[in-house]
Amino acid sequence: MSGFSEKTVIEEFIVDKPDQVKKGLMNNLLTGKRRDEGGGCGMTLIETGKVNIDGTKMLHMEQNLSMDIVLELLKEESHTRAIAKKLGTNHMTTARRLKELMETNVVDYRSEGRNKVYHLKKSLEARNHVLMAEHHKLTKTLEKYPELRRIAEKIQRDKRIEMALIFGSIAKATAGAQSDIDLYIETRERDIKKELEMLNTRLNIKIGTYNPTNPLAKEMEKDHIILKGAEKYYEKRGFFR
Description:
Helix content: 40-55%
CATH class of the domain at 145-237: Alpha Beta
Number of strands: 9
Strand content: 5-15%
Structural class: alpha+beta
């Protein structure tokens, strides 16, 4: 299957197809058959036996893309092409996920010329998707920076801690092997800070009461990984008011 990566085949020829077409293509993928797909579905002579994918993986890809779109819209309003470019996916796939998010009352749009500029709604469904997207982002971050796992587990088990966020280079996904691990904890207890600092010498911990107007809070709004207290964080920001 020269010229096509697994990701390209999935996105271009599977994810965007109607359900009845998806079913037929998936049968081919699982049986390793070669198929000429007509009827305007956009798939021609794809050697599907070389693609290693199952229905569960395909579903996860769709769900993950929806979560990534929500995370982009948390940062700023945007249109389909810009979202697709940032996420490294194609325009049609992104448009379909946005349509699904609209149908489930998560996003809405306003028109600017020929563009639809999408934004998150203040709905219960949007709130739930934001919380799921934050968990999704944490999972991806732990995969990229496994040294955070011990810190995250310690924080999540500590009943004294209600809200904790990673910020800085790790939150921006630009950290190197020796970069600081910038961590904010909403607490005034210095003992908590001292205990956590013993876990990793790279930890740079800020503590104090969360104030959405101070410079640190503004920095964290742009780039953060929530280790604990996602719902509390968005309540303090007043995001869904």
